Amino acid sequence: QVPLVESGGGLVQAGGSLRLSCAASSGRTVSRNTMGWFRQAPGKEREFVAGIRWSGSWTDYAEWVKGRFTISLDNARSTWFLQMNNLKPDDTAIYYCAASEEHFATNGRQFNSWGQGTQVTVSS
Questions:
Q1: Residue 26 has what pLDDT?
Q2: Integer Cα distance of 109 and 64 in angstroms
Q3: How far is CA 115 from CA 14, 15, 30, 43, 51, in A?
Q4: pLDDT for position 16
């Protein structure tokens, strides 16, 4: 319903870090109880990466994150981030931010607002 805007993608060497940001497009508002991140690699289906409750009291991560990624929310609760550390070549994908009206959401079908995606490429 409301377009979101991601930023922060780019090219990084294995072991490096990136921080992705997401917010509603300028002049728009979005209802969000859960904010999340997904990714899609070439030839693969979109998969859940991380999610956070608007209060910050709940977070969830994909098993393969293994503590490398951290999702967070700014103080105004208008922008959310994905800090990615110790990146690996297998992390190469288009990363999408999303917002859900549900309070605890980890499935893409639960999210009704999406960004256009930002490319993350990790070289060996």
A1: 67
A2: 21
A3: 25, 26, 12, 20, 15
A4: 98
Q: Are strands 18-24 and 47-53 parallel, antiparallel or unpaired?
A: unpaired
pLDDT tens per residue across span 26-79: 666 666 789 999 999 999 999 999 999 988 889 999 998 879 999 999 887 788
The string of pLDDT tens digits covering residues 91-109 is 999 999 999 988 888 999 9
Helices (H) and strands (E) in the chain, counts: 0, 11
- Buried b or exposed e, range 15-41, using 16+ CB within 10 angstroms: eeebebbbbbeeeeebebebbbbbbee
In contact, 20 and 40? CB cutoff 8 Å: no
Q: 87: Cβ–Cβ under 8 A, 6 or more apart, which residues?
A: 12, 14, 15, 16, 17, 18, 68, 120, 122
Cα–Cα distance for residue pair 54/16, rounded to 1 Å:
28
Taking the C-alpha atoms of residue 31 and residue 97, their distance in angstroms, rounded to an integer, is: 14
